[in-house]
Amino acid sequence: MNLQLENMSISASNILGIFDLDAITVEKTTRDTLNRAQTNDLLYDFCNGELPRSLVLVDADDSDCEYYLAAPNTSTLHKRMKKFTANGSR
User: Fold this and answer.
1) Could you write out the three-class secondary structure of 45-84?
2) DSSP3 helix / strand / coil % (the chain, rounded to 5)
3) What is the pTM of this model?
4) pLDDT at residue 87 above 80?
5) Which residues contact 12 (CB under 8 A, 6 or more apart)?
6) What is the pLDDT of residues 37-84, one digit of tens each?
7) Is 1:11 a contact under the CB 8 Å cutoff?
8) How many CA atoms within 13 Å lie on the side-chain side of 24?
């Protein structure tokens, strides 16, 4: 089962969480974490020029985790995950 973000397919077993970007960036520690991820080339933008609405936190094999910015909101991403779960796997 995978979650599709633009041209990237993410295994659901590697997804640690899907977060509303507006809600989580209120905290300074979250902004600091995202800035550190960007500095360390662990922040990836899959918004294709659109405003980022979601953050997908992914367990990476070669690092602690990776951060993916996505244009769809969290409910859309959750629906995609449920759709894949309901259909078996993709």
Assistant:
1) EECCCCCCCEEEEECCCCCCCEEEEECCCHHHHHHHHHHH
2) 35, 30, 35
3) 0.86
4) no
5) 1, 2, 3, 81, 84, 85
6) 999 999 999 998 999 999 999 998 776 899 999 999 999 998 887 765
7) yes
8) 18
